[in-house]
């Protein structure tokens, strides 16, 4: 290693081929550092852990720059284990509910985070070994899980390596209601303050989350940067201007993303059905839903039922859409439905992909959601005034009207709006600044 080839250790529990939230950001960040001339070592959980607990997208592995090295650190998730052959005797004796409660408490002994806390020891040991073998110039840790931050802090204290904290959500901040998940004097509060005092930079995905942290931790305000999500050019290939819909009397709507209980799925299904019943949208309209049902490898049955009940209204659930199939999914839609949880701090990686298509977007989320800021100047946007079936039905009708009226010029402006939201445009300034500091 020379001063002109700095070494980055990038800590991301969820990395390719995981299908976890934020994996696109993680892969893109590692790739961007490699493209900027860094030697990049990613520290992540094993692929087998993703297969067992959260699900995988094998095509994501192909998206990793071949110059990036990935070191896998052992991880087991006892409370998410579904194979009875792997159950410990204590789980059989205590029953799953009691076992899970006790095991979660044990996990938090080393680090105050359910399930992931027990990764701390293995993570810290792995980081020391990597740094001894090939000294790091910088560590970037992306969360959640927040134990990733502990790894970066550990190497900083142990070897003086500067580190960057990359928040995708909040640790103490509840991004949905704006309240506190943990009080200031809690163990989490004390750790977060300590990490922020020691960090070289702190990244947030939107300005609202950054401002909350600036007020909460004013001593670190100057370190805090906004590094928004964005869309990945490799995902879309050659990006052409979309054309007005050829048959707006049979419009095809699409939703793509992880569906959790925070997503207003029930309201969307009722709104869609009502839109058909009240002729807000043509009878031939369809809604194709792709993605995961819940955070884990096993789909949530309650969410599947909501989708199944709407089949007669033209709703189709296709399940997982691999990274390599994403562009094809968007290509066959006439308009895209952006359904998100409520909260002014809630951000979305998916909104950037939607904008990249240059197609009409209908927002099914509270107007205060941060995605509204991303879409504010997008020329092919309709949005619900509130997340009720009635409002959704009416707004879907407005979207159909837009499909009828939108011109080639409107689609060209939508294409241009998307060009400004590429992910590399968000990452480049920060990586450029860090590269200059390290190689100076």
Any overview of this molecule?
Helix 5 crosses helix 6, helix 10 (265-277) crosses helix 15 and helix 13 packs across helix 16 (408-419). The strands form two sheets. The chain has a seven-stranded parallel beta sheet with strand order 3-2-1-4-5-6-7, with helices on both faces. A six-stranded parallel beta sheet has the order 10-9-8-11-12-13, sandwiched between helices. With 440 residues, it is α/β, with parallel strands linked by helices. It has helices spanning 23-35, 47-53, 89-94, 96-110, 120-133, 147-159, 187-198, 207-216, 233-236, 265-277, 301-309, 326-331, 350-357, 371-375, 389-405, 408-419, 423-439, and strands at 7-11, 39-44, 68-72, 138-143, 163-167, 201-204, 224-226, 252-256, 286-290, 315-319, 335-339, 361-364, 381-383. It is built from 17 helices and 13 strands.
Short characterization:
By secondary structure, this protein is of the alpha/beta class.
Q: Any chance you could write out the topology, listing elements then pairs?
A:
Layout: E1 7-11, H1 23-35, E2 39-44, H2 47-53, E3 68-72, H3 89-94, H4 96-110, H5 120-133, E4 138-143, H6 147-159, E5 163-167, H7 187-198, E6 201-204, H8 207-216, E7 224-226, H9 233-236, E8 252-256, H10 265-277, E9 286-290, H11 301-309, E10 315-319, H12 326-331, E11 335-339, H13 350-357, E12 361-364, H14 371-375, E13 381-383, H15 389-405, H16 408-419, H17 423-439
Parallel strand pairs: 1-2, 1-4, 2-3, 4-5, 5-6, 6-7, 8-9, 8-11, 9-10, 11-12, 12-13
Helix pairs in contact: 1-17, 5-6, 10-15, 13-16
């Amino acid at each position: 290693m020379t001063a002109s080839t700095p070494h980055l250790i990038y800590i991301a529990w969820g990395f390719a081929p995981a299908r976890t939230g934020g994996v696109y950001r993680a892969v893109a960040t590692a790739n961007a550092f490699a493209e900027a001339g860094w030697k990049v070592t990613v520290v992540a959980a094993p692929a087998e852990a993703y297969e067992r607990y959260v699900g995988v997208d094998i095509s994501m592995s192909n998206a990793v720059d071949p110059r990036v090295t990935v070191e896998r650190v052992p991880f087991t998730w006892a409370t998410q284990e579904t194979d009875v052959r792997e159950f410990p005797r204590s789980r059989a004796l205590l029953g799953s509910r009691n076992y899970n409660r006790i095991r979660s408490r044990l996990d938090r002994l080393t680090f105050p985070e359910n399930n992931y806390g027990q990764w701390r020891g293995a993570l810290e040991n792995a980081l020391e070994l990597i740094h001894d073998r090939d000294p790091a110039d910088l560590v970037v840790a992306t969360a959640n899980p927040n134990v990733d931050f502990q790894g970066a802090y550990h190497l900083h204290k142990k070897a003086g390596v500067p580190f960057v904290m990359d928040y995708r959500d909040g640790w103490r901040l509840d991004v949905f209601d704006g309240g506190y998940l943990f009080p200031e004097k809690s163990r989490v509060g004390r750790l977060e303050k300590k990490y922020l005092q020691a960090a070289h930079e702190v990244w947030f995905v939107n300005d609202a989350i950054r401002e909350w942290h600036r007020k909460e931790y004013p001593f670190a305000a100057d370190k805090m940067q906004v590094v928004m999500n964005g869309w990945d050019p490799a995902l879309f290939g050659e990006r052409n201007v979309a054309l007005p819909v050829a048959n707006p009397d049979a419009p095809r709507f699409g939703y793509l993303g992880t569906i959790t209980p925070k997503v207003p799925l029930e309201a969307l299904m009722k709104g869609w059905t009502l839109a058909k019943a009240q002729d807000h949208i043509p009878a031939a309209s369809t809604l194709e839903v792709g993605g995961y049902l819940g955070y884990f490898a096993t789909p949530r049955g309650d969410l599947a039922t909501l989708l199944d009940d709407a089949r007669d209204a033209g709703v189709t659930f296709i399940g997982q859409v691999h990274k390599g199939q994403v562009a094809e999914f968007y290509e066959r839609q006439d308009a895209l439905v952006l359904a998100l949880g409520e909260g002014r701090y809630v951000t979305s990686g998916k909104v950037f992909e939607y904008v990249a298509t240059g197609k009409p977007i209908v927002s099914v989320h509270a107007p205060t959601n941060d995605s509204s800021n991303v879409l504010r100047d997008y020329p092919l946007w309709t949005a619900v005034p509130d997340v009720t079936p009635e409002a959704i039905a009416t707004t879907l009708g407005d979207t159909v009207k837009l499909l009828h009226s939108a011109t080639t010029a409107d689609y060209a402006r939508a294409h241009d709006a998307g060009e400004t939201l590429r992910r590399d445009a968000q990452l480049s300034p920060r990586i450029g600044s860090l590269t200059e500091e390290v190689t100076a």
